[in-house]
Specification:
This protein is mainly β. The chain is built from no helices and 30 strands. A hairpin with a 6-residue loop joins strand 13 and strand 14. About 10% of the residues are buried.
């Protein structure tokens, strides 16, 4: 080994230094109030390991001047500060925070205006992501061994935002209304698509489309209670519901099931009407060959402006019934003939009123396909005004 003295205390080693013995040690410094360092004098870049005596920190840094461009700083409390990126290499790189002791461990993100932390809250055995630097306060996300919790029971909204390229969506707790919302955008409470309140009532902000091979909407859970759909109108409400006490399907006025029913259907498929039944009626002038559209109408008012032949229909339904009103025009003496699907009593077409402006009523009933039974006409009603 070659040693040369530089000044009064520095040594320049020109060969390798090997320490032997039972407890070999190198001590840099003499307990004086000054920095001490080990400098790695590189070709293009120097590095140092040093004691920064002014702050009592051990530093690893770039260059040769202690305290400038530190990479790693270790305080007397063994707090480690890294001033650059930290890369962990190897087959299974692992960073462990804590020593299995009964204390909290955390990573604090020290921001300019706001701090955040990721921590193990040891007293609750929870992983917590929160605002600030104190573990357990202002929790944003809490993870236990079997649950993930968003929020910390504070009177604030909490949400998950899906940040899309063209459109954002959110799932959030609207704390002011105590509703769970799924909505458009990122602001809780604006443009909600689905809202669920504390009573589990669901409100949709848009249409519901059910797809699939056999889309099915089931209302109820087979329990002994009524189930209904309410149409909430501006001036009048209506409902469709299962009246469980009577086992009836009810369509009615208002929102209270069983009150003011309009239509009730029993399990035997018997139908009751709470009000009058109005069949759709067609009104038209008629002359020549006329085909009645039984699919579109139940009743027909025909003003004869010439002789009329009722051709065989093709849209009748078995069980359908109604009336045909025949009005003579101001000339009168118009006649009626019918196709073979129309069947008259005794097989004979009866005479109808021929006076100008006279009115006859002809009842009908469809008893089979291609068979419309006609009743005897009720003749000479009062002329309509």
């Amino acid at each position: 080994m070659a040693l040369s003295k530089i000044g009064s205390s520095l040594l320049d080693l020109t060969t390798d230094l090997v320490l032997t013995g039972t407890t070999p040690s190198i001590t840099i410094g003499d307990a004086g109030a000054e920095d001490s360092k080990l400098v790695f004098d590189g070709n293009a870049q120097d590095f140092y390991i040093a004691l920064d005596d002014s702050v009592d920190d051990l530093l690893i840094g770039k260059g040769s001047t202690v305290g400038t461009t530190p990479a790693i700083a270790i305080t007397e409390d063994l707090l480690v500060t890294v001033h650059g990126g930290l890369t962990m290499a190897g087959a299974t790189p692992t960073l462990t925070i804590g020593d299995a002791g009964a204390e909290d461990t955390k990573i604090v993100f020290d921001g300019n205006a706001k701090d955040f932390y990721i921590a193990l809250d040891d007293s609750a055995d929870k992983l917590v992501i929160g605002e600030g630097s104190t573990v357990g306060t202002n929790s944003i996300l809490t993870i236990t061994d079997d649950a993930v919790t968003i929020g910390d029971a504070a009177a604030v909204d909490t949400k998950i935002v899906f940040d899309g390229n063209a459109q954002d969506y959110y799932i959030g707790l609207d704390d002011s209304a105590d509703d769970l919302l799924i909505g458009l955008g990122s602001a809780v409470g604006t443009t909600p698509a689905i809202a669920i309140d504390e009573n589990l009532q669901i409100t949709t902000g848009g249409d519901i489309v059910m797809g699939g091979a056999t889309p099915t909407l089931t209302i109820g859970d087979a329990g002994a209670e009524d189930a209904k759909i309410v149409f909430d109108g501006n001036a009048q409400d209506f409902h469709i519901g299962l009246d469980d006490s009577a086992d009836d399907l009810v369509i009615g006025l208002g929102s209270a099931l069983g009150t003011t029913p309009a239509i009730s259907i029993t399990e035997a498929l018997k139908t009751s009407f709470g009000g009058g039944v109005v069949g759709k009626t067609s009104t038209a002038n008629a002359t020549g060959n006329v085909t009645l559209d039984f699919d579109a109408n139940s009743n027909f008012i025909l003003t004869f402006t010439g002789n009329v032949t009722l051709d065989n229909p093709s849209t009748e339904s078995v069980g359908q019934s109604g009336i045909i009103v025949i009005i003579q025009d101001g000339t009168g003496s118009r006649t009626i003939a019918t196709g073979t699907d129309y069947e008259w009593p005794a097989g004979t077409e009866p005479a109808i009123s021929t006076a100008a402006n006279s009115v006859d009523i002809l009842p009908y009933f469809v008893d089979a396909s291609n068979s419309v039974l006609l009743g005897n006409p009720q003749l000479a009603f009062a002329t309509p005004s």
